[in-house]
Description:
heterodimer, A: 426 residues, alpha/beta, Urease, subunit C, domain 1, TIM Barrel, eight-stranded parallel β-sheet, 18 strands, globular, B: 315 residues, Rossmann fold, 2 domains, five-stranded parallel β-sheet, four-stranded parallel β-sheet, 12 helices
Amino acid sequence: MKLLIKNGIVVEPSKKLQQQLDVLIDNGKIVKIAKKIDLKEKTEIINAKNCIVCPGLIDIHTHLREPGNEEEETIATGTKSAAAGGFTTVFCMPNTNPPIDNQATVELVMLKAKNEGVINVLPIGCITKQRKGEELTEIGELKNAGVVAISDDGSPVKNSKIMRRALEYAKMFDLVVISHCEDTDLSKDGVINEGKVSTQLGLRGIPKEAEEIMVIRDIILASLTQSRLHITHVSTKGAIEFIRQAKKNGVKITCDVTPHHFVLTEEKLLERPYDTNLKMNPPLRTQEDVNAIIDGLKNDVIDCISSDHAPHTIEEKNKEFDLAPFGIIGLETVLPLCITYLYHLHKIPLIKLLEKLTTNPAKIFNLKTKGRIDEGFDADITIFSLDEEFVVKKFYSKSTNSPFIGWKLKGKIKYTICNGKVVFKD
Amino acid sequence: MLKQTYKFNHKHLLGLEHLSKEDIELILETAKPFKTIFTRTIKKVPTLRGRSVVLLFYEPSTRTRTSFELAAKRLSADTVNIAVQTSSVQKGESLIDTAKTLESMKADFIVIRHFFSGAPYLLAENVSSSIINAGDGFHEHPTQGLLDIFTIKEKKGKIENLKIVIVGDILHSRVARSNLWGLTKLKAKIVLCGPPTLIPKDIDKIFPQIDIEYNLDKAIKDADVINILRVQFERQLEHLFPSVREYSLLYGMTKERLAKAKNNVLILHPGPMNRGIEITTDVADSINSVINEQVTNGIAVRMSVLYLLSLTQQK
């Protein structure tokens, strides 16, 4: 049966379009967009009055934990969580157990996603075998199996020569190398940002420079190899400035930030001392860094917004701060935080904001049929309210490690449609 | 002078950061009569009879653990020592579960020493007993801070405007942080002295009124008190200083150095000392040294803390 979305305000970033339009979906594709569509035949109708209708959100940085850590999240629960957050496509990071560093594991994840997932899952392959930073994976085979990019996320590729070769080699497949930038000698044993708060709480610090040194190294290597580099979860003012300069100099570099890095600062840890749901890597930084991220989003130095959804069980998190793992869940709060903070508070236009969650990820990672509401494109569509307020309470994710529980946010997801099917309904 | 009506209103003692000037003064005042108790032949009062105090120490300790135990016993509380090495912790029991077990046994107080900063906060959030921080990671060691202040006040008669130098590994020192919170609230003038690698980042943003001096000879000039921190040898492996020998040369408190300070300067050290490294024996045993008095005063201060917290518990 055909699906018709009526009366919604369609936001289509690639055409800079924002107006009330009806959207007709048939057989998993968008077939028609017009001021008014009325069909005589039997059609499923969604009334999107007063709602935003935008391309399905794409998260380029998710940890689905399967295989290996199914107690934290599975492909089934993780994709449900994504759908509830308005995402129709997620890229899953390869730091699973075993890691996604070979064809068989790529196929396992894709098969599981097809059978148990409710949205599109595109695996990211490892840069190096076992993520050890020592030997390149069979990148060509990974690409053939279906990986969308390569990354050793969670760890940097410490050896500059191996990083150089990865960038160089990936070029022939037009694969983007996603870099987790961290000088692990500088950050060693650190658990929060180094500075006033780490000193006050007596916790070991991670200096901003640990991130920035690696950002600079990777920029230099991307420049050397003329390859495509994507820096994920950028968190410092300095890193953003280096990326801005690199872009100006013609380096093929893109980057993303997470909502927690522009909504929270390290000061939150003084309000909630030793709350392990404020422990993530990179750590929460300072107001100065938050301001730089907001500016970077406004002036497009920052291309994408990602969740870095990192589920952990209560048992793992309810521990001494040093022992608790890094990471928080994010899929279900990304859009509400963006709407509440970027759109309502910082007045970032909706088109620009949604571009970083839809069109840009699709463009950077060559998803040719996604990220747009246009005839012939995949029927991946998110419908949400700009103004309806709600309290963050329950999650579809298997884990609950969120610092935003109890927060009042706007930007409530009403429907998520993936491949023409409603996969989430408020 | 403290008003008679001032009420102490804390269930836990997690750090000096959260205590007011009045709270600290009350603890010090209350410690005075307790100190006279154990100069008597019968060193015991029935104040905490029927209460239980559990000592949960995840790190080795002689003076703090014994001091808390004696303080509790002199108040007639029942005390239990958990030796972590022979407890279920070795079977992988989590800190929270261990504490919940103790709570179920109706421990009124849990005195915790832990190598991770914030461990006492975790207990305070998860169990109903009163939690006393006996030193957590690099964060705070509030009763050490209190006994240092008590000792200084006893000898100098005041805290305000005294020049107090804290020497050594400030970065990893919970004693330094508790001293900083307590002493700045009482308006002492503090100088931190140590190599730049051992001065924590942005400490001057937390305590804008303090001074930092890398040169010990300059720092101790006109000082009223010098509090010498223990230096841990493993820090050398973290490249925080090149060798113990060089550390000792630059920051060791020797008789020659002491001669450059005021005649009546007080020398404090939280113990255990590395004699010959951060402090020489002749300084440790000099008339300027109050290191043994610190230990004695520790019991009085801890009795005071237990007593005042017990009043809040009764509410």
